Amino acid sequence: MLFSSISFLYYFLPSVLLIYFVVPKKWRNLVLLVFSLFFYFCGEPVYTLLLVFSSISDYLHSLFIEKYRGTKKARAIMISSVVINLATLGFFKYTDFFISNINFLFGTDIPLLKIPLPIGISFFTFQTMSYSIDVYRGDVKAEKNLLTMGTYVCLFPQLVAGPIVRYQTIAEELQSRTHSLERFASGITRFAVGLGKKVLLANTLGELGSILGKSDATVLSCWLCAFAFALQIYFDFSGYSDMAIGLGAMFGFTFPENFNYPYISTSITEFWRRWHMTLGSWFRDYIYIPLGGNRVSKPKWLRNIFIVWFVTGFWHGASWNFIIWGLFFGVLLTLEKLFYADFLKRHRIFAHIYTLFAVLISFVIFNVDASYGISGTLLGMFGFGGVSAVSAESVYYLRSYAVLLIIGIIAATPLPKIAANKIFSLAGNGKNAALAIVQPVFCGLILILCTGFLIDNSFNPFLYFRF
Amino acid sequence: MNSENKSSKTVKIKNIATIAVFAAITAIIPIASMIMPDLEISKSERRHLAEFPEITAEKIFSSELSGEIEEYLLDHVVMRDGFRTIKSAFQFGVLRQKDNNNIYISDGTVSKMEYPLNEISVKKAARKLNDLREKYLSESAEAGRLFYSVIPDKNYYLAEKGGYLSIDFEKLESILAENLSGFEYIPITDTLSADDYYKTDTHWSQEKIGGVVNRLAERMGFVSEFDINDYEIKLMEPFYGVYYGQSALPLAPDTIYYLTSPVTENAEVYNLETNSNIPVYTTDKFTGMDSYDIFLNGAAAFITITNENSKSDRELILFRDSFGSSLAPLLIDEYRTITLVDIRYISSSLLDQFIDFHGQDVLFMYSVGVWNNSDMLK
Fold first, then answer.
1. Nearest 5 degrees, angle CA B292-CA B293-CA B295?
2. Are residues B238 and B123 in the same domain?
């Protein structure tokens, strides 16, 4: 079930909210768990068992880690948790990748298993794994209540596409959380913002790439495809995160931020501090720092960087393009740190152009479904491969989507938020009380408009569901 | 009241209003959707709406059911057309997109971009026509009575002015010319303009195709030219054409004018599929799914029109699409029999079971959309 679907918006969400707020407080986690399992069951009926297994497995592991704390057994149990999680992820996500590479390298003909990828497996295995590690490290206490643990793992707002919420972030709220008009209203607003990003911007930008892909490649169409995809994936994923954070707020949870205007970055280092922040911090805390981070010799430090970026790429998908994508960032980050970080700080305009250009290229590599193919798009962007500069189609679609692209560019900056905050502060100071109407009207309009787009559109994938 | 209290009260009102709006929308829409009886068809989109799916264990455990339920819910949201209008208005008005699902509005007329030219399809259509010539139409070809024409779409006239995409019509013509043998081409683009089509529909208006009939008369040697004064013009309104629903915008409807005369009233029209006689204009169809179906009762694989008082004893076989339904009534006066064949609905390999081919006039008259998507020709 997608957040941006009629069944979620008008049937699932109102039902869960109604029941959640009607039942006594002590039952609320149970309501969330039951609805979350149903939410996952709608998309992955059989794999719901996998989700339940994952929850119970790490629940038990953490209890035993706690029991044997300070002994070698605790370490072994923690390793067992990590191995089970990685094996689950590896089996469902990477088996066919390894088989096809073995077949390619050794000329064997091992049949592919073609196992459907469980939705959100990359997210929930990382959450449960980090939980067991955190218990082992003593950062959190093992949760003794299976219901609470299940609610944490299965919590539908963040279950299938993050943000990656660590147990310690919401441990207290799982026990007791406060609800307020302010929090609920801000949750609705955040959800509406995310829904608008996803349905109005990401989906429409996705259509542009899809339409252009049916025409002959030109330099202009290749750039348009690259540009549209970079904006699409940002609005798609950050929109989902906004919706998740908003839903979390409605139910009294505070989820971590996942995006912070990455396209205003002036270096790749900064970009990754602003893009998919919960994944970046996960790799930092559970891989990079345990490997020694930057407090080791230079060769080891470089090794650590490349391990992290290899894993980052591989996490995104069982395909070489994702690995190359990750390593591409690894190379850029290394070069930045070794050679030109200071130069970028002194030349901010150049630094911004450089960053956007590198990110644009990276997303061409990332977009395995690119209409012209990865190499076709990259070559086409620079006029190679015998493509013409423009065509009637590419000019037409540039004109047709120009306003959307401009809105997309503006919406990817903090400007709309600054404007919204200004309006809310003017409304809040009591001098311009009429402006208080802006927030409810905005939320209502977005909901109505998105409903119209959902009804009339068939293009509604969530890019990050595949990861 | 001090400013702090006032501010706090404003914030509280803002929050309550936000929650109230959200609650109202997310409650009213599903409740109203459930209360309202399910519609079987969407007249504006001209399609059957999804029915509530059958629930089986297999579907539940394959996640097929949730997909089907979503499809059902999407089709039965209360005020569905209103939501589609909102979306369309936003795309045209705010995003300033030039088209919505290839539908655009130019000079108050709705049109659709047929684009790009599918050369493979056009060549395939040409092969189909050549096959038919070889199999059935050799006598007509030898007598020089084998004709074809391409009906331009409205987009042909509107695209350039509005900066929209349209197929390369000249290239389409040249592909057909290169690949068809034994056929004579009758060009008609110069006999039409954008105003000769309905504003909300893909079709031409019958009362405005006199130029087309006269071009056919000139090339096919009719006894007399078309004269609109020979007909009584009747009308039916409002006519909401196929693009009206697809554009989802509140546009002014069209009027269907249809031309009657003693000839059209006395002609005998026989529909082979239903094994029944029908009138030339089935006005009852005006309130149906597609009002354009008043012309020869809508889509049919095989229709014969017999006119005992025709100006000549000649016969015509018209291979046609829906445009032919409004054209054929204007040719009745010229032919003793007109056989309308729509090989989108009947396999061309079966035609000799129903038609005695013996050197009749044969006209293949298809709109651009059919030439460009010729897979539909059987």
1. 85
2. yes
Distances (CA, A) of A263 to A23, A60, A69, A240, A281: 43, 42, 44, 17, 19
Output the pTM of the full model. Answer: 0.89
d(CA A64, CA A415) in angstroms, rounded, equals: 50
- Catalytic residue status for A61: no
Maximum mean pLDDT: which of A383-397, A399-413, B133-147: A399-413
Asked if A156 and A36 count as a contact pair (C-beta separation under 8 A), the reply is: yes
Secondary structure (3-state) at B103:
strand
Q: What percent of chain A has pLDDT over 90?
A: 81
Residues B227, B200, single domain; the answer is yes
B223 and B173 assigned to the same domain: yes
Q: Which of B106, B128, B153 is the endpoint of a domain?
A: B106
Q: Closest partner residue to A439 among B18, B163, B164, by Cβ? A: B18
pLDDT tens for each residue of B341-359 = 999 888 888 888 888 888 8
Phi-psi label, residue A383: left if phi above 0, alpha if psi -120 to 50, beta otherwise = left
d(CA B221, CA B145): 10
Provide the 8-state DSSP code for B332.
Answer: T
Q: Does A430 touch chain B (CB under 8 A)?
A: yes
B84, B162: one domain: no
- Distance, CA of A3 to CA of A13 (rounded, Å): 9
Do B124 and B77 lie in one domain? The reply is: no
* Four-point Cα dihedral A319, A325, A327, A330, nearest 10: -150
Asked which of B106, B138, B166 is the last residue of a domain, the reply is: B106
Alpha-carbon span A427 to A402, nearest angstrom: 33
Cβ neighbours for A350, distance < 8 A, ≥ 6 positions apart: A344
Interatomic CA distance for residues B294 and B279, integer angstroms: 9
d(CA A222, CA A361): 11
Given this model, what pLDDT does residue A329 score? 96
Q: How many independent structural domains does chain B possess?
A: 2
My answer on whether B95 and B124 are in the same domain is no
pLDDT of residue A441: 94
Whole-angstrom distance, CA of residue A43 vs CA of residue B65: 10
A447 touches chain B (CB under 8 A): yes
- Output the furthest CA–CA distance in chain B (Å, rounded): 99
Name the closest residue on chain A to residue B66, using Cα atoms: A42
Q: Closest to B26 (Cβ–Cβ): which among A9, A407, A441?
A: A9
Contact flag B33-A441 (C-beta cutoff 8 Å): no
Boundaries of domain holding B286: 115-376
**Pairwise CA distance, residues B205 & B194, whole Å:** 10
Nearest to A178 by CA among A348, A347, A25: A25
Q: Which two tokens stand for residue B129?
A: 């026509």
- Tell me whether residues A441 and B21 touch, CB distance under 8 A: yes
Which tens digit of pLDDT belongs to each residue from B179-225?
998 899 999 999 999 999 999 999 999 999 999 999 999 999 887 78
